[in-house]
Design a protein that fits this description.
The complex is a heterodimer of chains A (394) and B (80).
Chain A (H helix, E strand, L loop, with lengths): L16 E2 L11 H11 L12 H21 L7 E4 L2 H10 L7 E5 L4 H12 L3 E5 L9 H10 L4 E5 L11 H10 L3 E5 L11 H4 L3 E5 L11 E5 L38 H37 L4 E4 L10 E6 L4 H12 L1 E2 L1 E3 L4 H7 L6 E5 L6 H15 L1
Parallel strand pairs in A: 1-11, 3-4, 3-5, 5-6, 6-7
Antiparallel strand pairs in A: 2-8, 7-8, 9-10, 10-13, 12-13
Helix pairs in contact in A: 1-8, 2-8, 3-4, 5-6, 8-11, 9-11
Chain B lengths: L6 E6 L3 H13 L5 E4 L10 E5 L4 H10 L6 E6 L2
Antiparallel strand pairs in B: 1-3, 1-4, 2-3
The chains are: A alpha/beta (394), B alpha+beta (80).
Chain lengths: 394, 80
């Protein structure tokens, strides 16, 4: 059972078994909390605005955090990584900054609303959106993407790296090759992948990659990342102050990362995210192995409960540590409520902001209960969930 | 008697990120640099610049070139 150990901190008034890592990681590592506090105290000035010592200290926090994130994600030049408010803003930026009326995009049927809703708005303005169906595990097949891309001229292929519903990992490298061979851009929503799996953006050869800062990367909420391939001209969504040179110019600086970071940045969030990235750089093999081991225990355990259907790739196939389930005996909302109130187990029911994905796996009408493990999860947590679900559902 | 005037070289960069990256590159090359408010003579009134001893200028410019961070502007300035 994970203890909420920060005295006086808002949040659960009691200990809980936290299995909602797909929504956000909790608890945050002490190093992340310390980095946030440091950014609000000793380094609380406005980064890049001024050259006095505290402003420089804040600027260096942002600079070092960007470098750590670039190292973790395989980005050769940290300037190609912009800090944004979250993966949703990153997805909006890469889609709305690139697509224009008349463009056609091919997109997977597993996308989150962070992608599907901006695409809906773009479609109203004349962007054609063609959906490639994933299979019942939530896995997108490169051959299906290839057929769709070849059918008509395509400006971009858009696909998540991993599913927030089933944990399926999509073959992004193969899909990126297909996109590029057909003259299309490859845009990726990596919200569920970063941290939980190795992400090497240089090797993946994608054109844009959106990442959440507060999920697998262990940072605080309110921060995310957008990688843009060098030379890719993506229109910024916001204009404003950037602190650095050329303040007298009317137009937004075109250099990176400033072009995409108008306004005072979320320095505490960025500092916390940087701390999370540094932790992953130091522990990634060990922590990922532990996550995967605990997740297998969970998946195999819930898979044996009578009347329960588990959605996602088979236990021996690669996936991020997320699964969804439904029961023949009880609705998902009831399961989630009882797990919380009777057992102190935190999970999320419903559609997980991903109606496309639930339609794909056949749970759009019922929703599902999602369980995800991550930093701090233990075998005891998983065992508690299996015992509770068995009592409720068997 | 006129007091001796010390001078320094100020280097301006495209962004705060580039200026800090340049500071790091110079440190790696063993060249001392001090972050300063961007001097007006560099053509901009906001942001930060790097201050380097003139004796280190040639080495600094070589190191910045190697790091892919050539200064956007530079000027030799009288200290006060």
């Amino acid at each position: 059972m994970t203890e909420a150990s920060v005295a006086g901190a808002p949040g659960p008034a009691r200990s809980c078994v936290y299995l909602d890592h797909s929504a956000t990681s909790w608890p945050k590592p002490p190093e992340v909390v310390d980095a946030v506090v440091n950014a609000m105290t000793a380094c609380g000035a406005n980064p890049g605005r001024g050259a006095y010592s505290m402003a420089l200290a804040a600027a260096r926090l942002v600079f070092e955090s960007r470098r750590a994130c670039a190292d973790l994600l395989g980005v050769p030049d940290a300037r190609d990584l912009a800090f944004v408010s979250g993966c949703t803003e990153a997805c909006n930026l890469m889609l709305k900054g690139l697509l224009v009326p008349g463009d056609r995009v091919v997109v997977s049927s597993m996308e989150h609303n962070a992608v599907s809703r901006p695409l809906h708005v773009l479609s109203l303005g004349g962007v054609r959106v063609d959906i490639v169906q994933a299979d019942a595990t939530g896995t997108v097949h490169a051959g299906d993407v290839e057929r769709a891309v070849r059918a008509h001229a395509t400006r971009a292929v858009i696909c998540q790296h991993a599913s927030n519903v089933t944990g399926a990992i999509q073959p992004i490298g193969d899909i990126a090759d297909i996109a590029h061979e057909n003259g299309a851009l490859m845009l990726v929503d990596g919200a569920q992948a970063a941290g939980h799996m190795n992400v090497d953006l240089a090797a993946l050869d994608v054109d844009a990659y959106a990442a959440s800062g507060h999920k697998g990367l262990l940072g605080p909420q309110g921060v995310g990342l957008l990688y843009l391939r060098p030379g890719l001209d993506v229109a910024e969504l916001l204009q404003g102050g950037t602190g650095g040179g050329s303040s007298e110019e009317e137009s937004q600086p075109q250099g990176r990362p400033e072009r995409y970071e108008a306004g005072t940045p979320n320095t505490p969030g960025i500092a916390g995210l940087g701390a999370g990235a540094r932790l992953w750089l130091a522990h990634r093999e060990e922590w990922r192995a532990q996550e995967q081991r605990i997740f297998r225990e969970l998946k195999e355990g819930v898979g044996t409960i009578p009347g329960v259907t588990v959605f996602g790739p088979a236990s021996d196939e690669p996936c991020v540590p997320t699964l969804s389930l439904v029961s023949d005996h009880m609705d998902g909302d009831r399961i989630a409520f009882l797990l919380d109130r009777r057992y102190g187990i935190a999970v999320r029911s419903g559609l997980h902001c991903a109606p496309w994905a639930h339609r794909t796996i056949g749970t759009l009408e019922t929703g599902a209960v999602r369980l995800g493990v991550g930093y701090g999860s233990t075998s005891d947590d998983v065992e508690a969930a299996i015992v509770a679900l068995t009592e409720l559902l068997a | 008697m006129t007091p001796a005037t010390s001078r320094f070289i100020a280097y301006g960069f495209a962004s705060v990120h580039d200026a800090l990256a340049a500071e790091s590159a110079l440190a790696s090359a063993g060249i001392a640099a001090v972050v300063i408010p961007s001097p007006r003579v560099l053509g901009e009134l906001c942001g930060i610049a790097l201050r380097v001893d003139p004796a280190s200028a040639r080495a600094a410019e070589t190191a910045l070139e190697v790091a892919g961070l050539p200064p956007r502007a530079s000027a030799e300035i009288d200290d006060v």
